[in-house]
Amino acid sequence: MRITITQTEKMEGTIQVPGDKSISHRSIMLGALAQGVTRIEGFLMAEDCLSTVRCFRTLGVPITMEGKSVRVEGRGLYGLQEPEDVLDVGNSGTTIRLMMGILAGQPFTSFLTGDPSIRRRPMGRVAKPLREMGANIVGRQNGNLAPLAVQGGNLKPISYKTPVASAQIKSSILLAGLYAPGWTEVIEPEQSRNHSELMLKAFGAEIETDGPAVRVKGGAQLKGQQVQVPGDISSAAFFMVAGLIVPQGKIVIENVGLNPTRDGILEVLQAMGGKIRLFDTRVVAGELIGNIEIQSSELRGVSIGGAIIPRLIDEIPVLAVAAAFAEGVTEIHDAAELKVKESNRLYAISEGLTRLGAQIEELPDGLRIIGGKPLKGNVCQSYHDHRIAMALAVAGLRAEGETHIEDGEAVNISFPEFTQLISQLQKV
Ligand SMILES: O=C(O)C1=C[C@@H](OP(=O)(O)O)[C@@H](O)[C@H](O)C1
Ligand SMILES: C=C(OP(=O)(O)O)C(=O)O
Fold first, then answer.
1. Residue-wise pLDDT tens digits, 141-181
2. How many structural domains comprise the chain?
3. Could you give the 3-state DSSP secondary structure of residue 426?
4. What are the binding positions for 3-phosphoshikimate in this chain (predicted)?
5. For residue 162, what is the domain's CATH number?
6. Same domain membership, residue 34 and residue 14
7. How much distance in Å is there from the Cα of 235 to the middle of ligand 1?
């Protein structure tokens, strides 16, 4: 499917974005491992989270859905069944890496695979600590590439210093830690998103956080919960940038998750001169949420790197779009992780924005963008990557004429309502 975007003068209105992807995945996983029923409201009904649902059904967990409500009948820590078939995670890195941690604790063998993108992404970063804990993991390149076999059971706790700030690595080890006697510890170079810690605690696990270190105590009995999933700030980011760059933009996005380990995009867009106002902020089920008002703004370039990168890791493609419309130079460093996402995002966004006429250069660990050049519509590739498809669509709102994005169905991975919400806000 091709997405076509027409240059837009005015975007106005109030929207809600779908549920947070990270929290939706984790609510299924923790619900499955808990005793009793977990009820999830505002679940993200998108391909990645539905892949998690499919995998847990294959492990014998009854999961039913009605609208955006999901009911998970927990099986307890030791109640999963040996899967009769290969577990297919589709396009979802979060699903495969977090499940590897859970499966490492099971007294049976599981096979995991996914789409061509997943089969290219590095899994050794998770296989290494899980092997240290006692799991046996087999796959191509010594267990770095799916398809993977995970033979679990009899884990021992470890203290692991991860070389990369990654919530998927951290969460995988913490989930395996539920099955190891004593305390399992993960120490990160920079703090990544903390949803696993918050949710494990809410489900009844013993969790300690101590600066860059997080510890979980094995053997806890998890208990089913009510989960209210906030709107995904990573999805909201596309509409923040859209509202800032169109000549007449005034957009309100309601009920967005504002967890401080995820809100780097707000900080950076504000530092670029973006008129962004938060209101009605409140805490719901341990997560800060609020409404965001965005108005068209004259943006200026910024330089970012270091600890803020994990706080906006998925927003970098759309941040590059904002930078293309900002006065001056923007540099993004310490973002080499983007090369191992659904696509090589440093390459994909540079290639796409260059086709539209932007001045953007790939750096070894980031991007350099010289903003202010007028863009012109063209045909672009999504590289089967949802974030690239949506970022280029946003750029198309301010590119002369029409912009086409090939393989636009990638948006269904995290945000099936994306194009409909764009049309709803376009006023001229
Ligand atoms: O844990 C999570 O839910 C996620 C962690 C991030 O990945 P990394 O842990 O690989 O940085 C992020 O890019 C992904 O979209 C979701
Ligand atoms: C990187 C992403 O997801 P995952 O790693 O779960 O595939 C993303 O959604 O941008």
1. 999 999 999 999 899 999 999 999 999 999 999 999 999 99
2. 2
3. strand
4. 21-22, 26, 166, 168, 314, 341
5. 3.65.10.10
6. no
7. 14
Question: pLDDT tens for residues 343-356?
Answer: 999 999 999 999 99
Instruction: Report the catalytic residues.
Output: 314
Tell me: do 151 and 269 sit in the same domain.
no
Antiparallel, parallel or unpaired: β 183-187 and 159-161: parallel
Predicted TM-score of the model (pTM): 0.98
- Ligand 1 atom with the smallest distance to the CA of 166 is 9
Does residue 190 sit in the same domain as residue 172?
yes
159 shares its domain with 29: yes
Task: Determine the atom of ligand 2 nearest the C-alpha atom of 385.
Answer: 10
Atom of ligand 2 nearest to the CA of 117: 7
- 307 CA → ligand 2 middle, Å: 19
Query: Could you tell me if 201 and 250 lie in one domain?
Result: no
**Residues 99, 82 within the same domain:** yes
Q: Cis peptide leading into 18, omega within 30 of 0?
A: no
Strand order in the sheet with 213-217: 159-161, 183-187, 213-217, 207-210
**Residue located nearest, by CA, to atom 5 of ligand 2:** 93
364 CA → ligand 1 middle, Å? 21
Ligand 1 binding pocket, CB closer than 6 Å = 22, 94, 166-168, 171, 192-193, 313-314, 337
Residue with tokens 């398809």: 147
Task: Pick the residue whose CA is nearest to atom 12 on ligand 1.
Answer: 314
User: β-strand 87-88 against 69-75: which pairing, if any?
Assistant: unpaired
Supply the ipTM of this predicted assembly: 0.99
Task: Render pLDDT for 333-345 as a digit per residue (tens, 0 to 9).
Answer: 999 999 999 999 9
Which of 228, 254, 281 is a domain's end point?
228
- Specify whether 133 is located in the same domain as 33: yes
**331: its two tokens:** 């540099």
What domain range is 168 assigned to? 21-228
Strand 287-295 and strand 248-257: the pairing is antiparallel
What torsion, rounded to 10 degrees, do the Cα atoms 172, 262, 205, 217 define?
A: 50
pLDDT in tens, 258-310: 999 999 999 999 999 999 999 999 998 788 999 999 999 999 999 999 999 99
Could you say which of 195, 228, 261 is where a domain stops?
228
Q: What is the pLDDT of residue 284?
A: 84
pLDDT at residue 391, rounded to an integer: 99
